[in-house]
Specification:
5 helices, UPF0178, UPF0178 protein T9A_02346, alpha/beta, 6-stranded mixed sheet
Length: about 150
């Protein structure tokens, strides 16, 4: 099992939770990004910097992940690809993305894009909260407990 992180837009508190968990349960964790990402010195935690470009980091995660791995991402198309490969996906907000929820979120994303294209102001994402961090940490702990059995 391996944890893959779509690190370009991953909040710092999520990375901190992941770093502690990787050390605690001895699971490898790799952050993939288009820019340098600081990670603690550890044989279990590493960062891969890919070249700039549309979906380059996402494609690297899809290429490397395997069934049973966990992918942390807010990117719904990336989640759809890794779930199709047999990996699991969770958002930094602690929401699981499976075949059904990915389809729903893709539909919602497409609808919102149509609204924005029509000139409607839809607002941006909410700021990352302590409640989001706790929900993510709980989701990660449940996954780790399940896969370690």
């Amino acid at each position: 099992m391996h944890i893959w992180v779509d690190a370009d837009a991953c909040p710092r508190p999520v990375k901190e939770v992941l770093f502690r968990a990787a050390q605690r349960v001895q699971v490898p964790c790799t952050l993939v990004a288009n820019q340098p990402v600081a990670v603690p010195r550890s044989a279990l935690i590493r960062a891969i910097q890919v070249r700039q470009g549309f979906d380059v980091a996402d494609n690297e995660i899809v290429r490397r992940c395997e069934p049973g791995d966990l992918v942390v991402t807010q990117d719904i198309p990336l989640a759809a690809e890794v779930v199709a490969k047999g990996a699991e996906a969770v958002t930094p907000h602690g929401h699981w993305l499976d075949k059904d929820t990915v389809r729903e979120r893709l539909n919602m994303r497409d609808f919102m894009e149509e609204m924005r294209s029509a000139g409607m102001q839809t607002g941006g994402p909410s700021s990352y909260s302590g409640q989001d961090k706790a929900r993510f940490a709980n989701a990660l702990d449940r996954w780790l407990a399940r896969v370690q059995k």
